[in-house]
Write a structure and sequence with these properties.
This protein is mostly beta strands. It contains two helices and 14 strands. The protein has three domains: 60 residues, no CATH class; 34 residues, no CATH class; 149 residues, Jelly Rolls (Sandwich), CATH 2.60.120.
C-alpha cells in the first residue's frame, strides 16, 4: 500500500466512507508501517530527543566518538585517517632515545664502534682511502739480464766493473743469455741490447733472435728474429741501449726466455772498427698492479 496524497475538502462537501478509508485509514496504516517500508521525504529535521528503536538519532555521531555509547575504535578500521595524528609522548621519547643511543656508537660518539673489530660485510659500499693513483695503475718496470753464465764465442771479461762479453772487430760473434719472465709481467714495452765501446763514433750492427715458452710447450713455440740492424754509438765509454724492434710480443709471466745476440762485425754497416762489450739485455715491461 502506497501513501495517498492528502485531500482538502470544501464547505458542504459530504465525506464518504471511501474518503475516510483512503485518506485517513490507509495513510495512518502507512505511517504506522503496517503497509510496508515507509519512505520519508527530504528535508526532515529531528529535534530534541527523537529516537528510533530507543536510539537517540538527534546527535547520532556522538554515540561513536570517544566516550560515546557505541564508541568506534580506529584499531579495527582500515585505510588512512583524514587528519594528521598526534604521537604519544612515550613513542616520541622511545624514538629520541634510540637516536641518542645510535649517536653514541657513531663517529666521535661517546662509545664509538671501530669497524676493525667487527666481522661480516658492511651493508653499504665503502670508499677506499686514497693512497696514490700509481698504486692501482699499471707502471713500466725494468728487468736486466746479465751476461754471467752466458754461452758465447767472444771473450768473457769485465768492462770497467761490469761483467761483459767482448765481441771482436771484423768478426761475427754471438752470446746467449737466458732467464725468466718477471713475476709481475703484463706486456712488453721494449727490449734493449746494452753495450759499450772505447771509440768515439760509428755504428754497431746487431741481430737478436729470441725463443721463449713455458712447461709443456715446444722449445721453439715462440721465436722471433729482429733481422740485422745498425745502432749508433753514443761515444767512448758511453753505455748504449740498442732498441730491438718487435721482440717478446707474446711473452707471458711463466715463460723462460733466451736472447741470442749477434754482432755482425764483418758487415759494412758495422763502422765501430774496434772491439765492443755487451753487458746484457734490458727488458722494459708493463707490470701488473
Amino acid at each position: 500500500m502506497a501513501w495517498v496524497a492528502t485531500r482538502t475538502w470544501t464547505t458542504g462537501e459530504i465525506v464518504t466512507a471511501a474518503h475516510g478509508n483512503s485518506y485517513w485509514r490507509d495513510d495512518l496504516e502507512y505511517l504506522k508501517g503496517r503497509a510496508g517500508p515507509i519512505t520519508l521525504e527530504d528535508n526532515i529535521v529531528f529535534g530534541g530527543a527523537e529516537t528510533v528503536d530507543g536510539v537517540d538519532v538527534s546527535d547520532h555521531h556522538a554515540r561513536h566518538e570517544n566516550g560515546g555509547a557505541d564508541e568506534i575504535s580506529v584499531a579495527g578500521l582500515s585505510g588512512l585517517l583524514a587528519d594528521d595524528q598526534h604521537v604519544l609522548d612515550a613513542e616520541v621519547l622511545a624514538v629520541a632515545a634510540a637516536l641518542v643511543h645510535a649517536a653514541r656508537h657513531q663517529n666521535a660518539g661517546a662509545d664509538e664502534i671501530n669497524v676493525v673489530g667487527l666481522s661480516g660485510l658492511l651493508a653499504d659500499d665503502q670508499n677506499p682511502v686514497t693512497h696514490g693513483v700509481a698504486k692501482h695503475t699499471d707502471v713500466t718496470r725494468y728487468k736486466f739480464y746479465t751476461v754471467q753464465g752466458a754461452l758465447h764465442d767472444g771473450v768473457y771479461t769485465a768492462y770497467n766493473r761490469y761483467p761483459a762479453i767482448e765481441l771482436g772487430d771484423n768478426l761475427d760473434e754471438y752470446l746467449k743469455i737466458s732467464g725468466g719472465a718477471p713475476a709481475d709481467y703484463s706486456a712488453t714495452v721494449a727490449v734493449y741490447i746494452v753495450w759499450a765501446c772505447n771509440v768515439g763514433a760509428g755504428n754497431a750492427r746487431f741481430q737478436m733472435l729470441t725463443n721463449y715458452g713455458t712447461s709443456g710447450q715446444a722449445h721453439d713455440v715462440h721465436g722471433e728474429d729482429s733481422g740485422e740492424f745498425n745502432t749508433a754509438n753514443g761515444g767512448a765509454g758511453i753505455t748504449n741501449w740498442a732498441a730491438v724492434a718487435g721482440s717478446l710480443a707474446g711473452l707471458a709471466k711463466a715463460d723462460h726466455v733466451t736472447f741470442h745476440v749477434v754482432r755482425h762485425g764483418t758487415d759494412a754497416g758495422d763502422t765501430i772498427n774496434a772491439n765492443l762489450w755487451v753487458l746484457g739485455v734490458m727488458l722494459a715491461y708493463t707490470a701488473e698492479q
